[in-house]
Amino acid sequence: RIMKKVKVALVAGAMITALAACEKGNATGSRMGNNNAVNASASAVTTYTDVSVVQEIFPELEGIESVEYEVIKHGGDDPRSVPGPTDYVYQGDIVLTEEAANTIAGSYEWQDYDTDISFEAVTERSGDYKLDGHFTQDILKKTYSGKVWFNEADKTILFRAGTL
Q: How many CA atoms lie within 13 A of 113 on its CB side?
């Protein structure tokens, strides 16, 4: 009879501990959800100006004068999710030298194409951006997929490229 009372007490204690852990997990989960929303708007996306990163994505692109880009991380943030690869999307703009812009302008058949890119932190650029899929293929590293738009007048490229 004493053993039965001990077992009941142990089971009850284990249940209380489990419930407390669940409540703590729920509180943490709801805080994480709120924090993710705050982080997404406050600091999830930062702008960068490191030309070497853009040169890694576009190894065949010459004449880069300056860059501004953001990195968006997809997957891998939620500790409750199944572990797996994390994909990164790089998007931003590249300012070219005049010589590079002139060479690019004359080397491809540019078509009118709306830019389907929306920046979270990079300064928006407007203008007459055009697309040529061959240009994208020629300059984009083969382990990335994406699109590249070119504005001859501003000597700028808009890009969105993600890891495969």
A: 16
CB 68 within 8 Å of CB 48: yes
Residue bearing tokens 């020629």: 138
Residue 152 gets which letter from DSSP?
Answer: T
- Note down pLDDT in tens along the chain; length 164 residues: 554 544 444 444 544 444 444 443 443 333 223 333 333 334 468 999 999 999 999 999 999 999 999 998 876 555 666 666 778 999 999 999 999 999 999 999 999 988 888 888 898 888 899 999 999 999 999 999 999 999 999 999 999 999 87
Neighbours of 61 (CB within 10 A): 20
Query: In the β-sheet with 130-131, what is the strand arrangement from edge to edge?
Result: 47-48, 64-74, 87-96, 156-163, 144-151, 130-131, 111-112
Residues in Cβ contact with 73 at an 8 Å cutoff, skipping those fewer than 6 apart: 86, 87, 88
